[in-house]
Amino acid sequence: MLLGGTGVVLATVVALAVSARDTAENARMADVLGLDLGWAPWLVPVAGTAGTLSAVAVVGLLLSAGFLSGGRPRPVAVAALVWTAVTAVRICAGTAEVFGVPVRQALHPKAVWFFVTEVPTGQALLMTLVLAAVVAAGCRFATSADGAAVLMALAVVAVLPPVAAGHASTAGNHQVITSALMLHAAAAVVWTGGLLALVLGARQPAVAVERFSGIALWCFAVTVATGVVGAAARVERWSDFTSTRYGAILLTKAAALVVLGAFGWWHRRRSLPALAAGRPRVFARVAGVELLVLAATMGLAVALARSAPPNELGAVVFDTPLTPAVRWIPEPVLLLLAVVVVTAYVAGVRSVPGWSGRRTAAWVSGWSLLVAAGTLRFATVDASATVAVLQPLVAAFVVPALLVAGSPAGLARAAGADRLAAAADSRPLRVLRRPDLAVTLYAAAGFGLAVGVVEDWAATRHGVHLLSYLAVVAAGCLVWSPARPSPRTG
């Protein structure tokens, strides 16, 4: 508890110290305009830091219950309620900042309603508030590791809306930056939360730490890669790292990541062998210091989100063999998801002799088509309207059929991945696969995707656009699943 409190204080102090000059400047400008903001400019970064840290605690405890050491997720409900309450405070502080009034005057229902329905930041915080409340309620009823795993995934999703609604959403290259930042935030939250859960104590610590070691390595790699993408897109010149506050904060975060990488190396060389030998104090000491560095880095991230980047560049676009008719805008979320699931599928195929090559081809083709539908941009004027409709249709109808034809649940059963197979046959999924409910969800997801095409969400609300693609694919898989043949290995 002492370590957790120290981390909270450290992250808050870092966020306030780094953003102090910008916050004070905003307050002076408000005074010049005759606006009385009160404590709102200072409350925003404090509440943002508290929200991030409470989300880290929720994700970490659910990760521990769902994947690392098991146990019921009910104790997480308190942390989820704190996260919900802090998000409500962030909404009030954001409303005050938008209207230029003290927080107590911003509590008028009409002002709050305008903020959460008309302002992108308010809309994002409302989504986080609702999802955090759902996680808190779910923690009261979930009793299994599978339930904790589902709630953890939902909690990670709840972290993302404010990230997608930040400065990156207004940049010319916002599709790439927004996706990279969402992956960056998700990996950082899982990494920090898992380490926090281990430090607070886990059943069978040696086993839990061994399981988390691989997760932490992947999270570190994703955090570094997406951080480089974001920095390359927002900082045009090397001198920006030293001549701008945004660049200086980025440079400090990069240094912190180097230190955290050194901690990971030390864990693998010293801490894990000592833990396996029955000496847990070595891991606890090193992990405690690492956790404090992560908390300080979270404070830097909050300050960075409130800092204006030095440059707004054009879209990140790559040529293809068909350029100028076709260009490729990379989508980090879809690319990473496709690489992970295809790699896992191929690994399963190698462990099951005689698995159908047609199923493997269908699985790989489905994910390839989804990536193409979500990332290729067609510049031919006459065909643009047709292609804008064709790409969502491919995602809605062709991709689900190919993914179901790949029979991932059958492969999981044949490969001995009992937990994945059990999840595929779980009662919630059986209910969702009922024809009436599956078709309803499919129609709703298809309608959302159609609205996104008409409203051009790809250019204005990339996070929602990406979610609509994944939702229609998931709903399509539910529709196709009841009709799939029994999985065979030949």
UniProtKB/TrEMBL annotation:
Q: Which UniProt keywords apply?
A: Cell membrane, Membrane, Transmembrane, Transmembrane helix
Q: Is Transcription regulation found in the keyword set?
A: no
Does Membrane appear among the keywords? Answer: yes
Location of this chain's protein in the cell: Cell membrane
Q: Which Pfam families match?
A: Caa3_CtaG (PF09678), CopD (PF05425)
Q: Name the major location.
A: membrane
Q: Report the transmembrane regions from the record.
A: 43-64, 76-99, 111-136, 148-168, 180-200, 212-233, 245-266, 287-308, 328-348, 360-379, 385-405, 437-454, 466-483
Ranges for domain Copper resistance protein D come to 208-304
Q: Which InterPro entries match?
A: Caa3_assmbl_CtaG-rel, CopC/D, Cu-R_CopD_dom
Membrane topology designation: Multi-pass membrane protein
Name the GO cellular-component terms: plasma membrane
Q: Which GO terms describe its biological process?
A: copper ion transport
Report the protein name in the record: Copper resistance protein D domain-containing protein
Species assigned in the record? Virgisporangium aurantiacum
